[in-house]
Write a structure and sequence with these properties.
The chain has 342 residues and is α+β, with helices and mostly antiparallel strands. The chain has twelve helices and 16 strands. Helix 6 runs antiparallel to helix 10. The N and C termini lie close together (9 Å). Keywords: Membrane, Transmembrane, Transmembrane helix.
Length: 342
């Protein structure tokens, strides 16, 4: 299990680079009032730019789609089928899903699954990455990889699966197509990403070190896993390294102070965004504004607990879920005490 704070180490983001240069440290100090919320890549520009707000709000409102992404039975249940009661005032839980449906795909896949916990006092944010190959029980389908829930029953079944495995209610869901990340990358003129492990993917050669990537390169970079040392786990770290690079570029003055580039970035982010039936743009904006004082050290990154790798009875390569630690994680989320979880 991986667990760290951004101000202590950048390993989760930079895939091994745990030191900050003086220039990076100064840049972090200049950007202390970082806005992080469930939809950070979309909401930060909208909240931060003041005079452009009405214009960008119009783009967001027109682009964001709402669908029935939450299950009919919203409450999590335990192994005996009993509803797990949720304490009041225990914060909010957002499930972010990255859907990598390539042209010609006959089924949908959820290749990125991040649960964002926002505590009641909005003082911190915890982002929990759930590897897609976690071996878990899926309601009505027996045991399978976690991302199979999305293929079997879309977002509602994925939400139900994750709620039951954690004993925690998920309040809202947002789905972003990988093509959206590609467009966002191109809209900001490309991003500089730290590559920890070399690979050759999609016709591109990725060498260890920092590389400037356009949208097509970035998409190939975050999709690769077979050539990486820890497969899906290593890919998760790649995705985090890319997301950090995109966040920093999206928050840079080159984007925020350039109306055309900013509009392209927001349009790219929201044109591939779908949220649940209960989440509207006004609520998204209010949530981001409530967390406007967050700093880098207030953001915690966690990988859901697993016990290494193994094989299912039918021969699939899987990530073995650490159920005692998963129970602890669920209790910390349910009681709004993630700061004490380790």
């Amino acid at each position: 299990m991986t667990d760290m704070r951004q101000d202590e180490s950048d390993e989760m983001f930079d895939e091994g680079d745990t030191t900050l240069s003086r220039a990076e440290h100064r840049e972090k100090k200049r950007n202390r009032r970082i806005l992080i919320a469930a939809l950070v890549l979309i909401l930060v520009p909208v909240v931060a730019v003041g005079g452009y707000l009405a214009w960008l709000n119009h783009i967001v409102t027109n682009n964001v789609k709402q669908e029935l992404l939450l299950p009919d039975s919203p409450k999590p249940t335990n192994n005996e089928g009993q509803v797990v009661e949720q304490p009041k005032d225990n914060g909010m839980n957002y499930l972010l899903v990255g859907n990598d449906a390539r042209p010609g795909d006959t089924g949908s896949r959820s290749d990125v699954m991040v649960l964002v916990h926002v505590p009641q006092d909005r003082s911190t944010v915890q982002l929990i990455h759930f590897p897609r190959d976690l071996w878990v029980p899926i309601p009505g389908h027996g045991e399978a990889k976690l991302n199979a829930a999305y293929a079997y029953g879309g977002a509602p079944l994925l939400v139900e699966t994750m709620q039951n495995m954690l004993g925690v209610e998920i309040d809202h869901v947002a789905i972003v197509g990988f093509e959206g990340f590609k467009r966002m990358t191109d809209a900001v003129g490309g991003v500089d990403v730290n590559v920890a492990e070399p690979s050759t993917s999609g016709g591109f050669r990725f060498a260890k070190g920092t590389m400037h990537m356009n949208g097509e390169m970035a998409l190939a970079f975050v999709r690769e896993r077979k050539q990486l040392s820890e497969g899906d786990i290593s890919r998760g770290k790649r995705q985090q390294a890319f997301i950090k690079a995109l966040m920093l570029k999206g928050l840079s003055k080159d984007v925020l102070l350039n109306p055309g580039r900013l509009a392209d970035f927001v349009d790219a982010a929201t044109s591939n965004l779908t949220v649940d039936q209960k989440l509207d743009v006004g609520q998204m904006r209010s949530e981001a504004f409530a967390m406007r004082n967050l700093r880098g050290g207030d953001i915690r990154f966690i990988t859901a607990p697993f016990d290494g790798f193994g094989w299912s009875k039918d021969g699939q390569s899987i990530d073995l879920t650490n159920w005692p630690k998963m129970k602890e994680l669920g209790e910390a989320l349910r009681d709004d005490k993630m700061d004490s979880y380790n």
